[in-house]
Amino acid sequence: MKFVKAHGLGNDFIMIFQDISKEDMILLSDRKLGIGCDQVIQNINNNGQYNVRFWNQDGSEANLCGNGIRCLAQYYDRVINKFHTNSGIIHTVKLNNEQVAFSLPVIPVIKQMSYKLPTYDVHIGNEHIVIFINNEPDWDQITHDFQDYLSIKNIMCIWHDKQWNIRSWERGVGRTLACGSGTIAAACAVWENNKSLTLGNKDNITFHTEIGELSVIKKKQIWQIGPANIVANGNFKLI
Ligand SMILES: N[C@@H](CCC[C@H](N)C(=O)O)C(=O)O
């Protein structure tokens, strides 16, 4: 089976172009027994319509994957692409060999949650909890406090020092180096929380992940711009 390996800020993916079983998805994602990735991106070209599904490392399906869709767009030669996903049609624009932009096909729904820190529940196609913290998160504490949500929502921790910082814990995976959709959810939470008013252009927020930057821009639609890198391709033997 043909595969392509890619990553967006260390959130890594295996792209495949055919149907496979859930067991094979899990095997492919396994870092010891397979190739290893946070998500498998299944992209099937149906007479020119690109139908895309995202599968977490544990075999659960995700409705949206921001870093993943940018990687898929990077794979194609075309500047503009249109992908059909469970969250709707996503338009992508390849800006150069590193940066890709995509527009969110969903109107965000944001609700405040009761917690000791400002916390928001953000639906943008997939589900996120965004927590405003003060510095690097204590994941033992956070995963303990939000244990009832871990199988249904991604948890984003954000804080502002000289810049906006973000750390991610993904449903179906655990800790990841970045989460594209989570970063859009974080921007929505910042806008809701009005914190961006003190930070210059409030419609454009750049988040610093563990290894780079992701920007979220509010125009008519919400856009994300960030890196997408293709790192390998090959054949995987399905047994
Ligand atoms: N890495 C992704 C998000 C993947 C989906 C998530 N784990 C879920 O189940 O919703 C991204 O870049 O958005």
UniProtKB/TrEMBL annotation:
Gene3D superfamilies: Diaminopimelate Epimerase, Chain A, domain 1. The lineage of its organism: Bacteria, Pseudomonadati, Pseudomonadota, Alphaproteobacteria, Holosporales. GO terms for cellular component: cytosol. Pathway: Amino-acid biosynthesis; L-lysine biosynthesis via DAP pathway; DL-2,6-diaminopimelate from LL-2,6-diaminopimelate: step 1/1. It comes from the Bacteria. This is Diaminopimelate epimerase. GO terms for molecular function: diaminopimelate epimerase activity. PROSITE patterns: DAP_EPIMERASE. Belongs to the diaminopimelate epimerase family. InterPro entries: DAP_epimerase_AS (IPR018510), DAP_epimerase_DapF (IPR001653). Its EC number is 5.1.1.7.
